[in-house]
Specification:
By secondary structure, the protein is an alpha/beta fold. Helices cover 39% and strands 17% of the residues. It has two domains: 6-196, inorganic pyrophosphatase (n-terminal core) (Alpha-Beta Complex), CATH 3.90.1640; 200-327, Diaminopimelate Epimerase, Chain A, domain 1 (Roll). The strands form two sheets. Strands 3-2-1-4-5-6 form a six-stranded parallel sheet. Strands 7-8-9-10-12-11 form a six-stranded mixed sheet, sandwiched between helices. The structure holds guanosine-5'-monophosphate (5GP) and manganese (II) ion. Guanosine-5'-monophosphate (5GP) binds at residues 23, 25, 87-88, 91, 113, 245, 271, 288-291, 294-298. Guanosine-5'-monophosphate (5GP) is lined by residues 23, 25, 87-88, 91, 113, 245, 271, 288-291, 294-298.
Length: 328
């Protein structure tokens, strides 16, 4: 991985801005808040936080979460700019155009599909989470990580590892997590807020989505879909769909789970999960990206056409992968 002389770069700026992606997840939110806290307490500089979407309510317990902005606070031209957990700048939605040519843009990410959009690119595809990288980088940069920052980075790591269940969890992930716990983080409290408790409307929404559950291709593919009418019927918000796609992958014998969310604005957000196949390749073919076992894309077409096109691509992919396995 590239190394940068952050201390030297910091001497040239008076402000810092941190950006993260649309439909922010625990890694995006925890990493942004953790880095903000670390940079502010160690440098004294003002640090602004940007995300092009609302922050889901379940993250309300994270210190500083109320500071996220959806529009720029003044000009960022003179700032040092960090973009976290984004494989490409399209993940910043309408905020992309404000920073795409920025001369001091640091891209910190762990996606295999990262396209090195930054002036500086700190990309480590072996890292379980961007939050894990930020802890390592903070150590390398000689920054102190306090309890609040540790809580945010822990939340980032526990989110992207599915509570240390996914195969991105490494010995280094657990060593870093141990250091975060030593700073006072209580895993049970974080787990309760992020995974074990949900609003009633989320369960109603799951019930609504499950009505469309379909098994395909000898039960190797499971998919379901929902649209804004279905979400409103349950009194729920789109952010409550987060994690539904995991239920599909968890079905016995299913290899690929696909969740379709048809938004009223005219596009469909597609989420992929797999047990062993590289679904980032499928998502990339539709202009998205992600990780080998968890990826996504946004497709602009009629809802029924999106489902047809994506299922065709996944069928062909699963067929091809199965043939390869038989040959090997
Ligand atoms: P999820 O299905 O939870 O929204 O996303 C799973 C993974 O795929 C995440 O790592 C996320 O960054 C990535 N991902 C989801 N949607 C998109 C997309 O539209 N574009 C790209 N490049 N990555 C995506
Ligand atoms: Mn991540």
């Amino acid at each position: 991985m590239e190394t940068i002389d952050l201390k030297a770069i910091l001497k040239t700026v008076k402000r810092i801005s941190i950006f993260s992606h649309v439909r922010p997840d625990g890694d995006a939110i925890g990493s942004s808040l953790g880095l903000q806290r670390i940079l502010h307490t160690n440098t004294g500089l003002p640090v602004y936080l940007y995300c092009p979407d609302v922050i889901p309510a379940k993250y309300d317990f994270l210190p500083g979460v109320e500071q996220f902005l959806r529009e720029l606070e003044g000009s960022v031209e003179q700032d040092l700019v960090f973009v976290l957990d984004c494989s490409d700048l399209d993940r910043l939605d309408y905020l992309k155009e404000k920073i795409q040519q920025h001369p001091r843009l640091i891209n910190i990410d762990h996606h295999v599909t990262n396209d090195f959009f930054g002036k500086y690119n700190l990309v480590d595809t072996r890292a379980a989470a961007t939050g894990e990288m930020l802890y390592q980088l903070s150590r390398a940069w000689g920054f102190h990580v306090d309890f609040e920052a540790a809580l945010c980075l822990y939340s980032a790591i526990v989110s992207d590892t599915g509570s240390f269940k996914y195969d991105n969890t490494t010995p280094e992930t657990l060593r870093i997590t141990a250091e975060l716990l030593q700073k006072g983080v209580q895993p049970s409290l974080v787990s309760q807020r992020l995974f074990d408790e949900r609003p009633y409307t989320t369960l109603a929404l799951l019930g609504e989505a499950l009505k469309s559950l379909t098994l395909d291709q000898d039960d190797k593919i499971a998919w379901m879909s929902i649209d804004d009418d279905g979400i409103e019927k349950c009194g729920a918000k789109p952010e409550e769909l987060d994690g539904f796609v995991n239920y599909l992958r968890d079905i016995e014998n299913v290899e690929v789970g696909i969740f379709f969310y048809h938004a009223r604005v005219g596009n469909t957000k597609v989420g992929f999960r797999s047990k062993s196949m590289d679904v980032a390749r499928i998502a990339s073919a539709f202009g998205g990206g992600g990780h080998p076992r968890a990826a996504g894309c946004t497709v602009e077409d009629e809802p029924s056409m999106v489902i047809k096109r994506v299922l065709n691509a996944v069928h062909a992919f699963v067929d091809e992968q199965q043939k390869e396995r038989l040959i090997r």
